[in-house]
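Sequence in, structure out. Go.
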Amino acid sequence: MIPQSTAQIEPLSLIKHIQHNDDWRTQLRKAYRSPAQLLAALDFDAQQILAMTAADQGFSTLVPHAFVQKMAKQDTNDPLLLQVLPQAAEAVAHPDFNTDPLQEASYNPQPGVVHKYKGRALLIAAGHCAINCRYCFRRHYPYNEQRRARSEWQQSLGYIESKPDIEEIILSGGDPLVLTDPQLFELISAIEAISHVKRLRIHSRLPIVLPARITHRFCERLASSRLDFVIVVHANHANELGDDVAQACSLLRQHCVQLLNQSVLLAQVNDSLAALKHLSERLFEIGILPYYLHLPDHVAGTTHFFVSLERGQALIAQMQATMSGYLVPKLAREEPGNSSKTVYASH
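Output:
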């Protein structure tokens, strides 16, 4: 029997109507929050839902309607569904996979600040996202311990102000664009007041999964800033990049925001030449430059997504042999203790 919570689910055919009539915060409140809800919206029957539903391992389901709209109905191998549906494989333990593979706890000089690389620092601007990606390298991050940094920015910003070599701030999370405009604009103003900061980089999945977040008001605030803005979006498959995403990206570009994309190489999602080529071509078509293709981190609960370095290098070599260089992202991995990301040559 389908759980009671699925009874009020809007049919997939109505999602487009919802998107046109609700603001982004309303859309986020209406996001699917259980595997049963998500699967019912894709027309799986009760027996299929029961067979496909797995424990979330403490990392809850969260998927906006706008993202679900791009999934194929009743397709258990849909590359977008695989990114967000809890699977039994998440319970598989492996000695090389742990809860903090990047050792970020070692680079946390103040609550909410991660300072690993010279010239730039990362600010945890929010403790949640608009979508919970099952491969997330911060799915175990102790956001509750960082709560003070999100409500009282002064200590975090004071640390940045005391480091004159920091010229770029990276807003991350969670996802910084889940902040309301007043919260986000207040933070931007505080960063603008630090004279040695020149650039503000925002890492966000919202332009992809909840493009209604990209409003004229938001874009106008970025355009009015003394800072140079870069938004690094996160798309793993060309199917994520519909017309709604293209419109959001066009609006950002009209307001002089540079757009880059970083992907994660994920087994069964995009680990093929065809998938990666289509992704890069579609990104460029809508004004986003392919930037990084990350090898998956050794995060507990994500062994089923793992793709080897050798496979990644072979795919990059195939892309280089068949595509213009600017369409080929850099194959990279972030490794604890290194002064920058490790970028791998093709193989």
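Check: Residues 4-91 form one domain. The chain has two domains: 4-91, 104-344.
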